[in-house]
Design goal:
The protein has about 70 residues and is mostly helical. The chain has one domain (about 5-65). Helix content is about 60%, strand content about 10%. The protein has a two-stranded antiparallel ribbon. InterPro entries: PnbB.
């Protein structure tokens, strides 16, 4: 997974969210379609773990907490 592929993966999800009101219906949809146990969740989790392991995600640190 590269940073570009990660951004593309996030962009695909955010494109599906764009324009929707921030309400209970969105909450329900996100949890049903993309919540823990979903393919989207598993893929994003793996991408985040790969990015951290490869050093391009969470590459900053402050007070012992990694972020970025």
């Amino acid at each position: 997974m590269s940073p570009t592929e990660f951004r593309e993966q996030i962009a695909r999800l955010t494109a599906r969210i764009a324009g929707r009101p921030l309400d209970a219906a969105l909450d329900t949809w996100l949890n049903a379609e993309h919540g823990a146990g979903s393919t989207t969740y598993s893929e994003l989790k793996a991408a985040c773990q790969a990015g951290v392991a490869e050093g391009w995600l969470c590459d900053r640190e402050g007070g012992g907490i990694r972020y970025g």
